[in-house]
Amino acid sequence: MEAHNPKKRSPAPWILGIGALLAILSAIAGLRSGAPLATGLEGTAAPEFLLPRLDSAAAQPKSGPAQSRGKPLLLHFWSPSCEPCVAELPTWQALAAQGRAPGGDFTVLTVTAEEPADVRNFLTQRKIQLPTVLDADAAVHEAYHVAGIPHTVAISKTGVIVRELVGAHSAQELEQALDAARNAP
Question: What is the pTM of this model?
Answer without folding.
Answer: 0.77
